[in-house]
Amino acid sequence: MELLGSTLTATYAHPRPTPANFLPAISSMASSYRDRFPHYNLTHSLSLPWRPSTYYKAASNWPTLDPYCTRSQRVSESTMLPFVSNRTTLFTRYTPDDWYRSNLTNFQESNTSRHNSERLRVDTSRLIQDKYQQTRKTQADSTQNLGERVNDIGFWKSEIIHELDAMIGETNELTDIKKRLERALMETEAPLQVARECLFHREKRMGIDLVHDEVEKELLTEVDIILCCQERMKLYLDKAIAQLAANRAAQHELEKDLSDKQSAYRIDDKCHHLRNTSDGVSYFRGVERVDATVSVPESWAKFTDDNILRSQSERAASAKLRDDIQNVLVVTANEMWNQFNKANLAFTNRIAETADAKNKIQTHLAKTLQEIFQTEMSIESIKKAIMEKSAFLKVAQTRLDERTRRPNIELCRDMAQLRLVNEVYEVDDTIQTLQQRLRDAEDTLQSLAHTKATLEHDLAIKANSLYIDQDKCMSMRRSFPSTLRLVGFC
Questions:
Q1: What is the pTM of this model?
Q2: Domains of the chain in sequence order
């Protein structure tokens, strides 16, 4: 069997016809014999009914030229039959049946050849049409696949662009709140410095006012709260810096993937719009054997999906961190403001107490000064009274001394003598009493002077404490940042 033609739906086979072995045309035989054998004259009469029976036997068995020629070469010249160039009917080599069979065979072979040729032409035309349709269908399928691929790339590209825009917006918002956190952290330095300076100034209080009072407790608590708030802000600031790095890494992967998608989209879109009549189409031998692919559709889609999922995860973490930072800013601002108000309230109460104590000291000092003045006046009056009593004593003693000069019996212990003696004793006792009272008054005056000095010193201490708490500390604490500044707003 020999394959003659094939289509997409059928395969045609036809047995090759066995060529008939018959002699070539006589003219060709004559030409082939013309120069092969020499000419001999016949030795017998041509009128005899002689026919070469040997040749007839050979002709009835489909003789061919080659065996005859080969056999004739082996025959010696003495036994070779003579031939004549001008044949007659006497020398005819074929029978009519041979002639008819030869024609019939030629006709059949012609019909077979034409039939096979016609079938081959029809099959070839059908094959060309089928292959053309198959090629067009294959190209249409490739174009459709390229279009679907372009749509897939466009879909993922739009998803990446959407996620990239969301990530850029989230990164910008996180950057803004990070700047707010940095500003809020810087704003806490001023209250911390104020609280420490208040503690430093209050160390300059004097005497009894150098106490561990409620104001000092609140100031120490304020310092601790501000330091704690700063630690929390620094912790979230480090988290924000790390989250920004993660956001930028995810954004970089999305931008890189988007750049690759855009390049692939341009290439596949160009391939999708290429036609047989397009410019730039050419042969690239062996390109179908080059496999430079590094992924399959599943891994390709998973790569972009993983990038988007990573970006969404980082974006969710960034949004949560922003909420935490916002809460920390509000909580720390409230804590610092509450403690600031508590410290200010303690300052106000302490200033009121100190002012009240100062006023009372001033009142007592005024009374003490008045009492000192009265005591001094009393001392002067006592001294004056003593001086006055001295004159009476001198008169009485002078009288007694003069009466001691009375003569003889005149030295009588009369009533005058007794009265003068009593007067001397009485005046002397009065002077002693006044002198004791003078000493007591002087001691009282000394005590009042000491009290006055104590009150004046205490008054100076209270004035110094009031100056520190009211003028220095409270004047600095008027510059405490507002709530908006503590949460990072300018």
A1: 0.65
A2: 138-275+295-350 (1.20.1260.80), 351-485 (1.10.287)
